[in-house]
Amino acid sequence: MKTKIEEYLREVDDFKADSIEKLEEFRIKFLSKKGLVPALFADFKNVAPEERKEMGQLINKLKGSVQEKIVSIKEGLETSPDVASAHLDLSLPAHAPLGSRHPLSIVRNDIIDIFSRIGFTVSEGPEIEDDFHNFTALNFPPDHPARDMQDTFFIEKDPDIALRTHTSSVQVRVMETTQPPIRTISPGRVFRNEAISARAHCIFHQVEGLYVDTNVSFADLKQTLFYFAKELFGEGTKTRFRPSYFPFTEPSAEMDVSCNICGGKGCNVCKYTGWVEILGCGMVDPNVLESCKIDSKKYTGFAFGMGIERITMLKYQINDLRLFFENDLKFLEQFKASY
Ligand code: PHE
Fold this sequence. Notes:
CATH class of the largest domain: Alpha Beta
Number of domains: 2
Structural class: alpha+beta
Bound molecules: phenylalanine
Helix content: 25-40%
Number of strands: 10
Shape: elongated
CATH superfamily of the largest domain: Bira Bifunctional Protein, Domain 2
CATH topology of the largest domain: BirA Bifunctional Protein, domain 2
Number of helices: 12
């Protein structure tokens, strides 16, 4: 038995393996239930009592060196790049779950797409604005309530610096630097000091539009927005205009579309009127053009502004605006876009 064990010890010592499979064969040969080490232990009862101590130690030594050998070869194989990559199939398709666009981004892109088709460019501007671009140039009288702390997040006083309350400020910036014809829309984030509820948030998104040229009339405004409503909500959509007030437009209006949920018959979304309000609009006040160094005798223009949240809620029948900001995948995964 002694010579047999010594032979095994030498074999273990000389053993080399370049693959996990060969190493596994080695393990099975020595350590599995029917392997050589258990066989030696089984033979142990036949060993003469005076040799038992020595044989016992030898068998244990063999078992120990087999185990050590396995661990050390395994470590070498795992760190060797060849063998590691041999177990990776790089051609397998990835299993990463696909993300989807946020519903607000889908609708913003839809709106941009619709206006791009009729020649509107996209302009952007800063979210932190001065009083001139957010209010003064837009014909807000000095004591207008919208300048009040109620609505505006001020960052500095004297001179006033605030988070923009609408993207009309971007249009002021465009008019300051560009002479007509101007046809542009400005999508972006806006901020108002409002309590968060199912219908309002202190941060929301707008798309505002501006068209300034010679002979721009209210008929142009109506047709442009009618086209927009039909593109966004579907061919059968009707529009109506109600008189309204904004400091920067005269005359001003609010546009309603026929309720896309009940088709105008009346439901709880349109509060049984058949109509839902989607935007504010009007002819640019000549004072605004003059503030931006555009000749108001030569040029006229129209402007409009809408909240993306509101339009998205209508389009997808979402009844709580807070869902847009919660990052809940169960909600977000329902929206798919082709771009
Ligand atoms: N700026 C207005 C708002 O934020 C929207 C608007 C834009 C209204 C242009 C009329 C014309 O509510």
